[in-house]
Amino acid sequence: MSASLLRRGLELLEPPGRAKVPLGLQRGRAGPRAAGAARRRKRAPELGRNKATVKGRVVRSAIEEYHKKKLVNHLRENLQYMLKGQLVADKAVTEQVLAQNRGRKSKDQPPEKTEKKNPEGTVFTEDDFRKFEREYFGVP
């Protein structure tokens, strides 16, 4: 499942009124040219500084760099987020989503549910069988 589909699904489960502002509006960009203008506004590098010298350079630890770039496991946070939401979608909506995701082939269709029939009980009692046995076989 792609990240965008997962994000859309999570947006559906969020309570109304708590929707996030789209990223474009959040940053206050005026349009696609705003990113280029921001780059042009950055100050030019200092001309007098010699990059070959060590003066003013910060020594970085390789272990710290590794920890910065190490992947973070978000499983616990994601589980907390999923479990805290008490909003449950309607049965009709979930059925509709499942129907849309199902393919058209017969192998993709769910098996039809057949109602189980309860075994019918007998009409005759043990006394009826004994009486029949006496009459038919002549057993006393």
UniProtKB/TrEMBL annotation:
Keywords: Nucleus. Residues 21-50, 99-125 are annotated as: Disordered. The keyword Acyltransferase does not apply. GO terms for molecular function: enzyme binding. Residues 27-37 have a biased composition (Low complexity). InterPro entries: AROS. Signal peptide: none annotated. GO terms for cellular component: nucleolus. It is found in: Nucleus, Nucleolus. Coiled coil: none annotated. It comes from the Eukaryota. Belongs to the AROS family. This is Active regulator of SIRT1. It comes from Panurus biarmicus (Bearded tit).
